[in-house]
Amino acid sequence: MRFFGFLLGAYAGLLAPAWSAENVTIPAYAPAPGVEHVYRVQMASETDMSFWFDNPGASSVAMRGAYLRRMIILSRDEKSMRVRWSLDSALPEGVSGAASTYQLNPLYQNSLLAYGVNQLEFETNLSGIPSNVLGADAIVANMQKMAANGPGGISAAPESGVSNIIEAVRANPLQIVTALIPEALVLANGQGASEETLEIAQAYTSSGTESISGVDVRAEIIWTLESTDTVRHTATLSFSQTDDPIALSQSQQAATAKMMTAFPERAKALTSDQLAEVKRASKNRTSRFVVSLDDGSVLEALETVAVRSGGMTVRTFTHVRREQVPVSLPIPAILTSATLLTPDLRVEPLPSTTATPARVNDDIQASAPPGGTSQAHVAAAGNENQNTVIAPISLQVKSAILGASPVHHDIGLNIDLTPDSAAKFKDFTQAAIGQQTQVLIDDKVIMEPWIREPIVDGHIVITDADRKNLEILAERLAIPDASIFVRVVP
């Protein structure tokens, strides 16, 4: 959704491109219904957790994926469109590097199984921004079914990450598009519902507000028409978005607290300057679009997003191109390198199910996210220990007492293990350095800490904003022979 504030074109029906020596008229997005387009999509993420890890091998990780997508406009009227995307996790022919360096592809296959789709239909506005996902109820039901039959037969806890994702999708079904077809949002951001006349090299500024974790975060936006190609009949646009760091930092307070809980020993040793750094957040999005001057559609797009939060930096890269369109934008090396150092992850496939198109005629109304885009980022960190299977362990509890948390200086459940279990826990955490783990009590996931260093004292602290939850856990662990279960995140 191109957004130029006062620069909205006055003649939305005029689609013929025109330009003078300095001005170019970019038409409104007007795709032909019934025509299928194939897109070649490349994605990658770089996660830097060097702030939290001493081991360089555990501090940074790169992952990438490559896909072919098919999209067709099923119908279009004066207010909206209905589109269908066909989804596939198979690695396309002709990619650079070994198939093993494209670890997002098997992860995406599991996502398709978890959501239960291989096609997705949704309604959009005239620029392509989703407004209503068809079949959302069926998708949520499939996700709940998969969560109820988790690894080892253990269902997802009410406060676990999986359950949170399901509830977020139930509250806003548009997140299904964000999770499965983020490139649809990238394309829509460069397409306009009405024509605009722009001056080459002139920067056009605007602003928008997005609600993040209940906090209104203002973003400054700059659009620039870089150039035109009279032979290809295209224009190249650039876009940048910078979120207000103060409001964004406020929105990330809960996430920062969880990060500190995941690294309790490191958190206790932070200086005041380091603590201030952990609490600072930033987000920058830059994009370039090659837009057709015939129908206003984006033929090629490149987006880079950099997010800093809780002492961790995540960068994502997305390149989308119509299959028959030549590459004209400079592609980051992480997407094209023949040799890419990636973690040795073993992605276990989810139980096979028959994925069916989501075409249930649900009447679900939801508004598009402010600014037209929303991004979900998944961070991972790993090291050489990920080559070894680490067995889960059961640990005997010596005592579980409510008291001050050494991490957040508030209430916490202080758990001390028996000597034998403390030794087992030391060996487990030594083997799991650089990996995320889960602590379970009564088959429920209580927390998911990252292991930064061996835990040698047999002491575990569980924090919760609700004291009653901690009191319940303390009662459960007060019985004779009480135990907790610890494993690497499946």
Automatic annotation (TrEMBL):
Region of interest called Disordered, as start-end residue ranges on this chain: 352-378
Record's keyword terms, sorted: Signal
The keyword Signal belongs to this UniProt entry's keyword annotation: yes
Species annotation: Phyllobacterium myrsinacearum
Pfam families noted in UniProt: SecDF_P1_head
SecDF P1 head subdomain domain segment(s): 399-465
Protein name as it appears in the record: SecDF P1 head subdomain domain-containing protein
Record's signal peptide: 1-21
